[in-house]
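User: Hi! I have a protein structure encoded as tokens and I'd like to know what sequence might fold into it. I'm fairly new to this, so please keep things simple.
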């Protein structure tokens, strides 16, 4: 059975190294066409994924999309002002990942990612009452195949919105554990 590849992660890792598809193919011993298929998200044999991961000195799990509904989890911190936290993370070597909105900034250091958002940014989509208890907290931002399917794992769906970026998001809670589930709209 083919393994589902996290194509965004594969491309990102290749670009971070400054490698072409040709270079990755040569380093891993697979064809350029195989690298192209992997970057399109097509499935691959286990041996192929292991070879590509080894060439990039990554664990195989770093390139595999989980079989369940969750695709990726990133910590999301909601703050009144992201400026001080942004400066602190930059001092630690995190690089910005632009989102197109100054109220929300992604940060990356190696394989670690975090999202910083202002209260104002979050309340532009969600109701203020839904977001207020989360200001100053870090919660999981979980990319899922289907918000509706994943929300069933939580006791309460607080609110569901469609963002200006084209994602459908649900703020969920279960026994004090909050998360935002997100899916890309078709």
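Assistant: Happy to help. Inverse folding works backwards from shape to sequence: for each of the 186 positions I chose a residue that suits the local structure. Here it is:
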């Amino acid at each position: 059975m083919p393994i589902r590849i996290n194509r965004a992660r594969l491309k990102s890792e290749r670009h971070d190294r400054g490698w072409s598809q040709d270079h990755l193919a040569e380093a891993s011993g697979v064809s350029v066409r195989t690298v192209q298929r992997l970057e399109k998200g097509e499935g691959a044999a286990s041996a192929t994924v292991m070879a590509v991961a080894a060439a990039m000195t990554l664990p195989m799990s770093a390139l595999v999309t989980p079989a369940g509904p969750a695709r990726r989890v990133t910590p999301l911190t909601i703050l009144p002002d992201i400026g001080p936290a942004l400066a602190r993370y930059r001092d630690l070597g995190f690089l910005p990942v632009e989102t197109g909105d100054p109220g929300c900034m992604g940060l990356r250091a190696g394989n670690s990612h975090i999202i910083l958002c202002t209260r104002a940014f979050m309340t532009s989509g969600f109701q203020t009452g839904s977001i207020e208890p989360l200001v100053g907290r870090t919660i999981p931002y979980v990319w899922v195949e289907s918000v509706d399917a994943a929300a069933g794992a939580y006791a309460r769906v607080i609110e569901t919105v469609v963002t200006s970026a084209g994602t459908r998001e649900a703020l969920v809670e279960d026994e004090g554990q909050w998360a935002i589930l997100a899916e890309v709209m078709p």
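A useful reference point when you look it over: Strands lie at 70-79, 95-101, 104-109, 112-118, 138-144, 156-162, 167-174, 177-184. Feel free to ask if any position seems puzzling.
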